[in-house]
Amino acid sequence: xxRDISGPPSIDLLGEQIAALLADPTLSHxxxxxxxxxxxxxxxxxxxxxxxxxxxxxxxxxxxKVQIGGGSxxxxxxxxxxxxxxxxLLWDVREGIPLRDNxxxxxxxxxxxxxxxxxxxxxxxxxxxxxxxSSGGQLITGVPDASFVLNRYPAPPEQxxxxxxxxxxxxxxxxxxxxxxxxxxxxxxxxxxxxTYNPHLWAYDHEKLVQLFTExxxxxxxxxxxxxxxxxxxxxxASVYVIATK
Length: 246
Ligand SMILES: C[S@@+](CC[C@H](N)C(=O)[O-])C[C@H]1O[C@@H](n2cnc3c(N)ncnc32)[C@H](O)[C@@H]1O
Known about the structure:
36% of the residues lie in helices and 16% in strands.
C-alpha cells in the first residue's frame, strides 16, 4: 500500500522516506551522499524540537558559565549546550542560543565554530553570544588554525607524515591522507561524508576570529593562552584561541 503523503509535510515522515531511499543499493553515489547529509539534519532536528517542546518559552535556568559544542568534553560548573548527548541541553545553536539577555558571565567553545555555516550561522552565533553575555562577560573561542597548515605548505614529506599522524592516526580515514595537500583538504572539509563526523564548513585564523567578533559588537578580541584545565588538552596543537569581551 503506498503511504498517504497528502497530509501536511512532516519532518519525521521525510526522515522515514530518506531512510527507505538509502536502503536501495542502486541509489547513485551523489544522491546517497546528499540524502545521508539530510538524514543527519533530520535526526539532529528531532533533538532540537524535543527541547523546544520542553521549553516553549525559553530556558528557566540562568547559567553563569556556558559551554557550546563541547561534545564529550564536559566542563565542571558549566552548562553544556550541544546538538547531541551528553550535553545538559540538546540544542541546534544555528537556531540561536536559548538563554536570556545579559545573563551569562563566561562562555567557552572549541572546535565548534568551524562546524557551522559561514556567514549566516557563524555571524548569528557571534551576535547571540554577545546578546546573552552580561556587560564585561567573556567568550573564549578555539578553532583549528588554518594558518598553521597553510604557512607550512609546501612541506617536506617528514613534516606531513608527523602532522598526519598527530591528527589522523586513530581515524578511519587515515589511509586516505597521504600528502600535505590531503591534510589541508581535511582541515578545510574534515570527512564530509562520514556519518560520525560533522564536516568543517569554514576555516579560521586569528585575523578572521577578530574580525567576526568585532563585527558582532564585542569591545575587545585578544589571543587566549591555552589552559588545559578548561580546554580539551588534545586541542592545544595547531589550534587558535581568542577571548572576546562584551
Ligand atoms: C569536533 S566536536 C568538538 C567537541 C569538543 N569541543 C572538543 O574540542 O573535543 C564539535 C562539536 O560541536 C557540536 N556542534 C556542531 N554543530 C552544532 C550546532 N549547530 N549546535 C550545537 N552544537 C553543535 C557537535 O555536536 C560536536 O559535539
